[in-house]
Amino acid sequence: MRTLKFKTVEELENEIERYFDLCDSKTKSVYDNRTKCVVDVDDPDPYTMSGLAYTIGVDRRTLINYKKRELYFPTIKRARRKVEADVEKRSLSTPYQSGCIFNLKNNFDWKDKRETKHSGDFSIANFLDETNKGTSSTTIKQVMENESPVPDSKQGTAEDTVPVK
């Protein structure tokens, strides 16, 4: 097993907090029409897992792998939740929502929810009758009884078959 960059949880926590403080302390200069002067205003950088990893001197995968260690798990989980909350919040107020969505899906296991609503009278027998015209009634009966009408050597893999109940 590789030697850890951070020997203690406190050392890792301090580096993580340094990153968040660095992001939060960013400002930008803007012209204030009321005072006719240039002023500095808060302009915090967004939190990212890649930015966190870069700032603390490891790559993103190494940072995520730290959570596999029981001792470091709560620290990494807290940091990830803070980044996730920031990304989610920014996704609601930015024109770059697709980038935020990509980030949430790839870094935080978010998924698109798909709902399919069916209406009307539906039965497997009617469906098979309509879609398998010319198929023998024995084959339809085998499918309905969850028997395979195809010899084992001609069946697809588990990835391209759907069990029928």
How does this model look, in words?
- The structure is a single chain.
- Helix content is 47%, strand content 7%.
- By secondary structure, it is mainly α.
- It has 2 domains: 9-108, Topoisomerase I, Chain A, domain 4 (Orthogonal Bundle), CATH 1.10.132.80; 124-160, no CATH class.
- Strands 1-2 form a two-stranded antiparallel ribbon.
- Strand 1 and strand 2 (37-42) form a beta hairpin.
- The radius of gyration is 27 Å and the shape is flat.
- The protein starts with 8 loop residues before the first helix and ends in a 21-residue tail after the last helix.
Keywords:
single chain, 165 residues, mainly alpha, Topoisomerase I, Chain A, domain 4, 2 strands, 47% helix
